[in-house]
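Bit of a strange request maybe. I'm writing a small parser for C-alpha coordinate strings and I need a real example to test against, not something I typed by hand. Could someone generate the C-alpha coordinates for this chain?
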Amino acid sequence: MSAGGPEWSDGERELMATDKRLAKLMKEYGPIEPERDRRGSREDAYQALAQAICGQQLSTKAASTIWGRIEELFGGGVPRPEDVVAADPQELRDAGLSWAKVSYFRDLAERVLDGEIDLERLPELPDEEVIEELTAIKGIGRWTAEMFLIFHLGRPDVLSTGDLGIRKGAQLAYGLEEMPAPDELERMGERWRPHRTIACLYFWRALDNTPG
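Reply from user aminoacidic:
Good idea to test on real output. This should exercise your parser:
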Protein backbone atom coordinates (compact mmCIF):
# COMPACT_ATOMS: atom_id res chain seq x y z
CA MET A 1 0.00 0.00 0.00
CA SER A 2 1.41 3.39 -1.02
CA ALA A 3 1.83 6.11 1.59
CA GLY A 4 -1.36 8.08 2.04
CA GLY A 5 -3.46 5.45 0.26
CA PRO A 6 -6.57 3.80 1.68
CA GLU A 7 -6.05 1.14 4.32
CA TRP A 8 -7.99 -2.06 4.81
CA SER A 9 -10.78 -1.60 7.33
CA ASP A 10 -11.41 -4.07 10.12
CA GLY A 11 -14.54 -5.20 8.30
CA GLU A 12 -12.62 -5.82 5.08
CA ARG A 13 -9.98 -7.83 6.92
CA GLU A 14 -12.62 -9.96 8.63
CA LEU A 15 -14.38 -10.54 5.31
CA MET A 16 -11.16 -11.60 3.57
CA ALA A 17 -10.36 -14.01 6.39
CA THR A 18 -13.84 -15.54 6.13
CA ASP A 19 -14.06 -15.99 2.35
CA LYS A 20 -10.90 -16.70 0.36
CA ARG A 21 -12.55 -16.35 -3.06
CA LEU A 22 -13.99 -13.00 -2.18
CA ALA A 23 -10.62 -12.05 -0.67
CA LYS A 24 -8.97 -12.56 -4.07
CA LEU A 25 -11.39 -10.12 -5.70
CA MET A 26 -11.02 -7.65 -2.84
CA LYS A 27 -7.24 -7.65 -3.13
CA GLU A 28 -7.53 -6.98 -6.85
CA TYR A 29 -9.93 -4.02 -6.55
CA GLY A 30 -9.38 -2.63 -3.05
CA PRO A 31 -9.10 -1.20 -0.55
CA ILE A 32 -12.15 0.91 -1.37
CA GLU A 33 -12.70 2.81 1.88
CA PRO A 34 -16.10 1.25 2.60
CA GLU A 35 -17.29 4.01 4.94
CA ARG A 36 -16.69 6.73 2.36
CA ASP A 37 -18.10 4.72 -0.55
CA ARG A 38 -21.15 3.61 1.39
CA ARG A 39 -22.01 7.11 2.57
CA GLY A 40 -21.90 8.60 -0.91
CA SER A 41 -25.45 9.94 -0.59
CA ARG A 42 -25.48 12.68 2.03
CA GLU A 43 -28.64 14.61 1.16
CA ASP A 44 -31.58 14.42 3.53
CA ALA A 45 -33.85 11.39 3.54
CA TYR A 46 -36.69 13.09 1.67
CA GLN A 47 -34.37 14.23 -1.11
CA ALA A 48 -32.78 10.78 -1.32
CA LEU A 49 -36.17 9.11 -1.77
CA ALA A 50 -37.49 11.74 -4.18
CA GLN A 51 -34.38 11.39 -6.35
CA ALA A 52 -34.67 7.61 -6.20
CA ILE A 53 -38.20 7.84 -7.58
CA CYS A 54 -37.06 10.28 -10.26
CA GLY A 55 -34.20 8.05 -11.36
CA GLN A 56 -36.01 4.73 -11.62
CA GLN A 57 -35.37 2.94 -14.93
CA LEU A 58 -33.34 5.88 -16.26
CA SER A 59 -29.68 6.42 -17.02
CA THR A 60 -27.75 8.53 -14.54
CA LYS A 61 -27.55 11.35 -17.10
CA ALA A 62 -31.28 11.33 -17.87
CA ALA A 63 -32.18 11.21 -14.18
CA SER A 64 -29.87 14.14 -13.44
CA THR A 65 -31.41 16.18 -16.25
CA ILE A 66 -34.96 15.59 -15.03
CA TRP A 67 -34.04 16.27 -11.41
CA GLY A 68 -32.48 19.56 -12.51
CA ARG A 69 -35.75 20.54 -14.21
CA ILE A 70 -37.68 19.67 -11.05
CA GLU A 71 -35.40 21.87 -8.95
CA GLU A 72 -35.85 24.70 -11.46
CA LEU A 73 -39.61 24.26 -11.24
CA PHE A 74 -39.41 24.85 -7.49
CA GLY A 75 -37.10 27.85 -7.54
CA GLY A 76 -33.77 26.12 -7.84
CA GLY A 77 -33.86 23.85 -4.82
CA VAL A 78 -35.17 20.55 -3.55
CA PRO A 79 -38.99 20.75 -3.46
CA ARG A 80 -40.51 20.49 -0.01
CA PRO A 81 -43.36 18.01 0.45
CA GLU A 82 -45.87 20.85 0.72
CA ASP A 83 -44.56 22.30 -2.55
CA VAL A 84 -45.06 18.99 -4.35
CA VAL A 85 -48.61 18.60 -3.05
CA ALA A 86 -49.49 22.16 -4.09
CA ALA A 87 -47.90 21.86 -7.54
CA ASP A 88 -49.86 21.32 -10.73
CA PRO A 89 -49.26 17.64 -11.64
CA GLN A 90 -48.97 18.64 -15.29
CA GLU A 91 -45.93 20.78 -14.43
CA LEU A 92 -44.22 17.75 -12.88
CA ARG A 93 -45.11 15.76 -15.98
CA ASP A 94 -43.69 18.50 -18.20
CA ALA A 95 -40.45 18.40 -16.20
CA GLY A 96 -39.98 14.84 -17.41
CA LEU A 97 -41.63 12.59 -14.83
CA SER A 98 -43.96 9.92 -16.14
CA TRP A 99 -47.52 10.09 -14.86
CA ALA A 100 -46.77 7.09 -12.66
CA LYS A 101 -43.79 8.88 -11.12
CA VAL A 102 -45.87 12.00 -10.60
CA SER A 103 -48.24 9.91 -8.48
CA TYR A 104 -45.29 8.38 -6.59
CA PHE A 105 -43.82 11.83 -5.97
CA ARG A 106 -47.09 13.04 -4.56
CA ASP A 107 -47.63 9.91 -2.45
CA LEU A 108 -44.23 10.37 -0.81
CA ALA A 109 -44.96 14.04 -0.10
CA GLU A 110 -48.44 13.34 1.25
CA ARG A 111 -47.23 10.57 3.57
CA VAL A 112 -44.54 12.83 4.99
CA LEU A 113 -46.98 15.70 5.52
CA ASP A 114 -49.63 13.45 7.06
CA GLY A 115 -47.10 11.88 9.41
CA GLU A 116 -47.68 8.41 7.97
CA ILE A 117 -43.93 8.10 7.64
CA ASP A 118 -41.44 9.79 9.95
CA LEU A 119 -38.20 10.06 7.98
CA GLU A 120 -36.26 11.34 10.98
CA ARG A 121 -37.07 8.12 12.84
CA LEU A 122 -35.74 5.79 10.14
CA PRO A 123 -32.13 5.77 11.44
CA GLU A 124 -33.43 4.32 14.72
CA LEU A 125 -35.18 1.35 13.07
CA PRO A 126 -33.76 -2.09 12.20
CA ASP A 127 -33.13 -2.75 8.50
CA GLU A 128 -36.29 -4.76 7.85
CA GLU A 129 -38.48 -2.18 9.56
CA VAL A 130 -36.96 0.55 7.40
CA ILE A 131 -37.74 -1.54 4.32
CA GLU A 132 -41.31 -2.08 5.54
CA GLU A 133 -41.80 1.65 6.09
CA LEU A 134 -40.38 2.65 2.72
CA THR A 135 -42.09 0.02 0.58
CA ALA A 136 -45.45 1.30 1.82
CA ILE A 137 -44.77 4.35 -0.37
CA LYS A 138 -46.04 4.00 -3.92
CA GLY A 139 -43.23 3.36 -6.38
CA ILE A 140 -40.64 2.34 -3.79
CA GLY A 141 -39.81 -1.35 -3.87
CA ARG A 142 -37.44 -3.46 -1.86
CA TRP A 143 -34.41 -2.70 -4.08
CA THR A 144 -34.84 1.06 -3.65
CA ALA A 145 -35.23 0.60 0.11
CA GLU A 146 -32.05 -1.50 0.21
CA MET A 147 -30.11 1.16 -1.70
CA PHE A 148 -31.39 3.70 0.83
CA LEU A 149 -30.08 1.50 3.65
CA ILE A 150 -26.66 1.18 2.01
CA PHE A 151 -26.06 4.66 0.65
CA HIS A 152 -28.10 6.94 2.89
CA LEU A 153 -28.21 5.23 6.27
CA GLY A 154 -24.81 3.55 5.87
CA ARG A 155 -26.00 0.19 7.17
CA PRO A 156 -23.15 -2.37 7.26
CA ASP A 157 -24.92 -5.66 6.63
CA VAL A 158 -27.24 -5.28 3.64
CA LEU A 159 -27.29 -7.80 0.78
CA SER A 160 -29.54 -6.81 -2.11
CA THR A 161 -30.10 -10.23 -3.66
CA GLY A 162 -32.23 -8.86 -6.49
CA ASP A 163 -29.54 -6.47 -7.74
CA LEU A 164 -28.14 -7.66 -11.08
CA GLY A 165 -24.78 -5.99 -10.49
CA ILE A 166 -24.30 -7.80 -7.19
CA ARG A 167 -25.33 -11.11 -8.73
CA LYS A 168 -22.93 -10.59 -11.65
CA GLY A 169 -20.15 -9.61 -9.26
CA ALA A 170 -20.69 -12.77 -7.22
CA GLN A 171 -20.60 -14.80 -10.43
CA LEU A 172 -17.25 -13.20 -11.30
CA ALA A 173 -15.78 -13.71 -7.83
CA TYR A 174 -16.75 -17.37 -7.68
CA GLY A 175 -16.14 -18.24 -11.34
CA LEU A 176 -19.72 -19.43 -11.81
CA GLU A 177 -21.16 -20.27 -15.22
CA GLU A 178 -24.33 -18.31 -14.46
CA MET A 179 -25.36 -15.59 -12.08
CA PRO A 180 -26.53 -17.00 -8.75
CA ALA A 181 -30.27 -16.82 -8.24
CA PRO A 182 -31.40 -14.49 -5.44
CA ASP A 183 -32.01 -17.38 -3.03
CA GLU A 184 -28.61 -18.88 -3.83
CA LEU A 185 -26.95 -15.50 -3.30
CA GLU A 186 -28.73 -15.24 0.05
CA ARG A 187 -27.19 -18.55 1.09
CA MET A 188 -23.75 -17.52 -0.17
CA GLY A 189 -24.01 -14.27 1.73
CA GLU A 190 -24.42 -15.93 5.12
CA ARG A 191 -20.63 -16.26 5.35
CA TRP A 192 -20.22 -12.49 4.76
CA ARG A 193 -22.24 -11.43 7.81
CA PRO A 194 -21.99 -8.89 9.41
CA HIS A 195 -20.23 -7.19 6.49
CA ARG A 196 -22.49 -7.96 3.54
CA THR A 197 -22.58 -4.32 2.47
CA ILE A 198 -18.81 -4.40 1.93
CA ALA A 199 -19.21 -7.47 -0.29
CA CYS A 200 -21.80 -5.59 -2.37
CA LEU A 201 -19.47 -2.62 -2.77
CA TYR A 202 -16.72 -4.89 -4.06
CA PHE A 203 -18.99 -6.67 -6.50
CA TRP A 204 -20.04 -3.33 -7.97
CA ARG A 205 -16.45 -2.12 -8.16
CA ALA A 206 -15.32 -5.30 -9.90
CA LEU A 207 -17.96 -4.83 -12.59
CA ASP A 208 -16.98 -1.16 -13.04
CA ASN A 209 -13.44 -2.34 -13.82
CA THR A 210 -14.37 -5.29 -16.07
CA PRO A 211 -14.19 -4.61 -19.85
CA GLY A 212 -17.52 -4.94 -21.60
